[in-house]
Specification:
Elements: E1 3-11, H1 15-33, E2 36-42, H2 46-52, H3 58-64, E3 69-74, H4 84-96, E4 101-107, E5 125-131, E6 141-144, E7 152-155, H5 161-178, E8 190-195, H6 203-218, E9 223-228, H7 229-238, E10 245-248, H8 250-263, E11 271-275, E12 281-285, H9 302-315, H10 318-334, H11 348-360
The structure holds 3-isopropylmalic acid and manganese (II) ion.
C-alpha cells in the first residue's frame, strides 16, 4: 500500500486544534481510498520558543526534507514579538525547503456567505500563484543612523530571472491543467500577471518581459492578461469572474490573497500550499493562530481540512482529494450556519466529524 510520511506541525494557538480535524479527515480518506499516511508530530512554535529559545533549527529542516509533505497549523504567539516566529519558522521553512510557489485558490463554496453583493461560487473561482522565495521577503536592507531623527531604513524587493521564470513556468502549467477551459467552466485558459509596471519599473518590467516571452513561445493557447496590483484589488471586489489564474510576486501575492480570502468566506475557509514541485511542500490554512479562541472548540477547521485536501492533490491522491472537496462543499451547503468562529452551529470537532463522515460514505 502506498504510504506517505507526513510531518505535522500544529504550531500555535488554535493551530493544533484545526490540524487535528484535518488529520481526522485524512484518516477517513485513507480508509476509503487505500493509501496510508504515517504522521510525525513536531512542536515548533511559540511555546517551544519560550521554553528553549529555538525557532526552527537547521537540524529540523534537514529532518523535514525527508518527509513527503508537511501539514502546518498556524504560527504566531501573543507573547512573542512579531517577526521572530514568522521569520524563524514559517519563512525559514519556505525558504530553506525552496517552496517557491504559494498556491492560493480563491473559491467560494456553496452556502458560504460572501461579502460581495450578487457574487456566488460561479463568480468567485480563481487561483493566485504567489511567488514565495523572493521580493521584499528576502530581508535585503537595513538601517543607518537607527534611533536618530535622520534614521534611514531600506528594504529591497529582489528578483532574479531564474526565480521569475520558474514561477511563471509553474503558473502557465497550472493554467494549462486547471484553467477555466481545462475545467470546462470557461472558453479559455487565462493567466494574468499582477504587477505594478507603472512604478516598479525594474522588478515588474522583468516579470512582464519574462511572462510574454514564455507565454508566446511555450503557451500560445493560454490567454495572457496583465493587471496593476491596485486595480486587481478593485476587480477582485467588482468583477472576480474575470479571473482564472493570477501570478504575482511575493508581497503583492500576500496582500491580495487576504482580500481574496475574505471574498471566499474568510480565514476559516482559505487554504494554501507552499510548494516545491521537486521537493517537500507544506500546506496550511492561510489565517493566523487566533490565540483568543485557543482551546474553546469554536474555531473553523475547514481551512486546515482544505489544506490537507490540497496536500493529497499534490501527492497525487486526486480521487481522495476530490472526495474531501465534495464533502466540504456538502457541509458548507447543508450544515454550517457560518464560517466564523463560534457561529458555525457546531464545534470545531463536530465540523471535522461532519466532513469525515461524508468522506467515509
Ligand atoms: C501569509 C502570512 C505570512 C506572509 C507572515 C505570517 C510571515 O501573512 O502566509 O500570508 O507574509 O507570508
Ligand atoms: Mn498573509
Amino acid at each position: 500500500m502506498k504510504t506517505y510520511n507526513i510531518a505535522v506541525m500544529g504550531g500555535d494557538g488554535t493551530g493544533p486544534e484545526v490540524t487535528a480535524e484535518a488529520v481526522k479527515v485524512l484518516k477517513a480518506a485513507e480508509a476509503k481510498f487505500g493509501f496510508k499516511t504515517d504522521l510525525t508530530d513536531f512542536d515548533f512554535g511559540g511555546e517551544r520558543y519560550k521554553r528553549t529559545g529555538e525557532t526552527l533549527p537547521d537540524s529540523a529542516v534537514e529532518e523535514l526534507r525527508k518527509f513527503d509533505a508537511i501539514l502546518l497549523g498556524a504560527i504566531g504567539h501573543p507573547d512573542v514579538k512579531p517577526g521572530i516566529l514568522e521569520k524563524g519558522i514559517l519563512l525559514k521553512a519556505r525558504f530553506d525547503l525552496d517552496q517557491y510557489i504559494n498556491l492560493r485558490p480563491v473559491r467560494l463554496f456553496p452556502g458560504v456567505e460572501c461579502p460581495l453583493k450578487g457574487k456566488g461560487p460561479k463568480e468567485i473561482d480563481y487561483v493566485v500563484v504567489r511567488e514565495n522565495s523572493g521580493d521584499a521577503y528576502t530581508g535585503t536592507g537595513g538601517f543607518t543612523l537607527k534611533g536618530t531623527p535622520n534614521e534611514v531604513a531600506v528594504q529591497s524587493a529582489v528578483y532574479n530571472r531564474f526565480q521569475v521564470d520558474r514561477c511563471l513556468k509553474y503558473a502557465f502549467e497550472y493554467a494549462k491543467k486547471h484553467g477555466k477551459k481545462a475545467r470546462g467552466v470557461g472558453a479559455e485558459n487565462t493567466l494574468a500577471l499582477v504587477g505594478k509596471t507603472n512604478v516598479l519599473t525594474f522588478i515588474y518590467d522583468l516579470w512582464e518581459r519574462a511572462f510574454h516571452e514564455m507565454g508566446k513561445k511555450e503557451y500560445p493557447d493560454i490567454r495572457r492578461d496583465y493587471y496593476h496590483v491596485d486595480a486587481t484589488c478593485m476587480w477582485m471586489v467588482k468583477s472576480p469572474e474575470w479571473f482564472d489564474v493570477l501570478v504575482t510576486g511575493n508581497l503583492f501575492g500576500d496582500i491580495i490573497t487576504d482580500l481574496g480570502a475574505i471574498t471566499q468566506g474568510g480565514m476559516g475557509i482559505a487554504a494554501g500550499g507552499n510548494i516545491n514541485p521537486k521537493g517537500v511542500s507544506m500546506f496550511e490554512p492561510i489565517g493566523g493562530s487566533a490565540p483568543k479562541y485557543t482551546g474553546m472548540g469554536v474555531i473553523n477547521p475547514l481551512a486546515a481540512i482544505c489544506a490537507a485536501q490540497m496536500m493529497l492533490e499534490t501527492l497525487g491522491e486526486e480521487k481522495a482529494a476530490k472526495k474531501i472537496e465534495d464533502a466540504v462543499k456538502f457541509v458548507t451547503a447543508n450544515k454550517m450556519k457560518s464560517m466564523a468562529a463560534g457561529k458555525m452551529g457546531y464545534s470545531t470537532s463536530q465540523v471535522g466529524d461532519l466532513v469525515a463522515e461524508k468522506v467515509a460514505e
